[in-house]
UniProtKB/TrEMBL annotation:
Species per Swiss-Prot/TrEMBL record: Hyaloscypha hepaticicola
Family annotation (PROSITE patterns): ZN2_CY6_FUNGAL_1, ZN2_CY6_FUNGAL_2
Keyword Zinc found: yes
One GO MF term: DNA-binding transcription factor activity, RNA polymerase II-specific
Lineage: Eukaryota, Fungi, Dikarya, Ascomycota, Pezizomycotina
Annotated stretches, region: Disordered: 1-21, 58-108
Protein's UniProt name: Zn(2)-C6 fungal-type domain-containing protein
Length: 578
């Protein structure tokens, strides 16, 4: 037989195998479906898995009796109030694939009526979960059933006045303008259009106390603080009024987005006026309220308990953007204050909230970018100055406050670096100096404009401390100029705190000089001892011609030393063995 008789025919070309009967959600999203019931994609993302009536999974892929049984159960999946159930997942479809499922515990549930967020595994959600699973006609609501024994009644609330009794409408408009000119471009807590509309409703009608009134009081307090004058005579009373509203049990029991923004405004005011502990506590409360209202998730990352939507959920595009801005501002404030203060920040699980877009005239996004450079690793590993400082310098100084915030982080990084006794390169020192000098100029600019943010004084003070700590020629050369700037800022402030800061730095500066003088005296004493020995007949050291190459280079033979040391003649030189 010929050789061609035994030739094996090439196998037929195989076409790509595709699932012929994908479920409806996978078809709509153009995702790979494994034709199970429910399929892995729907299980992962919480979709309602269903197949067209005439195209169910064939027997080769799944047991139809099992599919029928699971289909009946899927109609009563947790928190599904109707076939039009709003069920979304905690991951973007672009970022996740069915091959990398996340456990259901990562999902959250949001009550859109009361604006309460909690995990699907929470004690409040479990009774409703069971009711839906048992196909109850009226499943239990999401409620804190049996949370305690109910032996004592709840606090009935507190009595506090009305903001209209503390400030007039005309005064409010003045401080509102100052707030939106000075504070909101840096910390975009409020949407000006929405705030103006709701404040008009407040002043034109007689409304009960609400968290929004605390926002009104917070705006007045901050506007009063940044006024060129001494501010409103009842500023402290207005601040206390906002605090009383936020701590009123009848209001705080029902969380809302307005509470998040009000606590953020309170955090800013406390950071401007009082001690670090108070500001840190307020920032943690704001962060936890952001979680309680579900702001740390995108809307498609949560399961809703009902199909009804609440105005608090701000479904339009601009509203979603403001919700993102609010969450990241809560995160920013808590993270920065905690890092500066040396305390733990509030850590939330599974954050899916997107970062807010950068807008012209609004510098919130830049501040968030700065805060995201804070190292997440443990303190023991130390900050990575080599890579972090260049990234910090690349962030544009579009606003003086941004420049000062960059310097604040720079100083924090150096303090942690120094605590671990890690070496620092000259390149890194020069980068710190560049960032610090820019911040000092920005601080003086704001001081001249009577915009006394907390870091107008704090940043310059800490920068001079860092210059003294680095203790090199490059850093010490910057002390005089920055010290003069700090004294000028202190003169504009004319407060006990500013005077205390200047005096403290002068003490540190003098102690540094005293330490250096003592070191010089020790060296001079050593020099005197040598001269005394020379006078006793050992010869003057100034008359000795030392060949330092011979002393310091091991390749030189001992006989390379001068004859005055009596080490032999040039003829006895022994060349080193190569």
């Amino acid at each position: 037989m010929s050789e061609s008789t035994f030739a094996i025919a090439p196998p037929p070309t195989r076409k790509r195998q595709r699932a012929r009967k994908a479920c409806i959600p996978c078809r709509q999203r153009k995702r790979k479906c494994d034709v199970q019931f429910p399929c892995s994609a729907c299980s992962t993302y919480g979709y309602q898995c269903q197949y067209p009536p005439d195209e169910g999974p064939s027997a080769a892929f799944v047991d139809k009796s099992r599919a029928s049984h699971m289909s009946s159960n899927s109609a009563s999946s947790p928190f599904e109030s109707s076939p039009a159930k709003v069920a979304r997942t905690g991951r973007s479809e672009r970022d996740e694939t069915p091959e990398s499922p996340k456990p259901a515990i990562d999902q959250g549930i949001l009550d859109p009526v009361k604006t309460r967020y909690m995990g699907l595994h929470s004690v409040m959600a479990f009774p409703r979960n069971l009711g839906l699973e048992f196909q109850s006609a009226n499943p239990p609501r999401v409620h804190s059933f049996a949370w305690n024994c109910g032996i004592r009644p709840e606090d009935g609330g507190s009595n506090h006045g009305n903001l209209k009794e503390l400030i007039s409408r005309e005064e409010f408009e003045v401080y509102k303008r100052v707030y939106f000119e000075t504070v909101n471009p840096v910390f975009g807590v409020l949407d000006k259009q929405d705030f103006s509309r709701m404040s008009d409703q407040f002043w034109s009608g007689s409304t009960d106390h609400s968290a929004f009134e605390a926002n009104l009081a917070g705006v007045v307090a901050l506007g009063s603080f940044f006024s060129a004058t001494l501010g409103h005579p009842k500023e402290l009373e207005i601040v206390k009024h906002a605090k009383d509203i936020l701590e009123d049990p009848t209001i705080s029991r029902r969380v809302s987005v307005d509470q998040v923004s009000a606590w953020l405004l309170r955090t800013l005011y406390l950071r401007l006026t009082t001690r670090p502990h108070m500001a840190w506590l307020a920032s943690n409360i704001a962060m936890h309220l952001a979680e309680a209202t579900g702001l740390h998730h995108e809307m498609d990352a949560m399961v809703l308990t009902t199909d009804d939507s609440s105005p608090q959920l701000v479904p339009n595009k601009s509203g979603c953007e403001q919700a993102r801005r609010l969450f990241w501002l809560a995160w920013l404030s808590n993270t920065m204050i905690s890092y500066e203060y040396g305390r733990s920040s509030s850590s939330l699980n599974n954050i899916t909230c997107k970062q807010p877009a950068s807008c012209k005239g609004d510098h919130t996004a830049l501040l968030i970018t700065v805060a995201q450079l804070i190292p997440r690793e443990s303190l023991d590993s130390g900050p990575d100055l080599q890579h972090t400082l260049p990234k910090l310098r690349q962030i544009p100084d579009e606003h003086p406050f941004v420049a000062m915030t960059k310097a604040d982080l720079c100083m924090c990084l150096y303090r942690h670096h120094r605590l671990l006794k890690l070496p620092i390169e000259r390149r890194e020192v020069l980068q710190i100096i560049t960032i610090g000098n820019t911040a000092t100029e920005a601080a003086y600019k704001l001081a001249q404009e009577n915009k006394f943010w907390w870091n107008v004084l704090c940043t310059v003070f800490q920068y001079i401390c860092v210059l003294l700590a680095i203790d090199t020629t490059d850093s010490l050369a910057q002390v005089a100029t920055n010290m003069c700037t700090l004294e000028d800022i202190a003169g504009l402030l004319n407060t006990h705190v500013s005077t205390e800061a200047v005096n403290t730095l002068k003490i540190l500066l003098r102690d540094s000089m005293k330490k250096k003088r003592q070191e010089v005296q020790l060296l001079e004493a050593a020099d005197s001892d040598l001269n005394a020995n020379a006078g006793s007949g050992l010869g003057s050291i100034e008359n000795v011609d030392i060949n330092w190459d011979a002393l310091l280079d091991p390749w030189y033979a001992p006989t390379y030393l001068p004859r005055e040391f009596g080490m032999g003649t040039e003829e006895s030189v022994i060349m080193p063995t190569m």
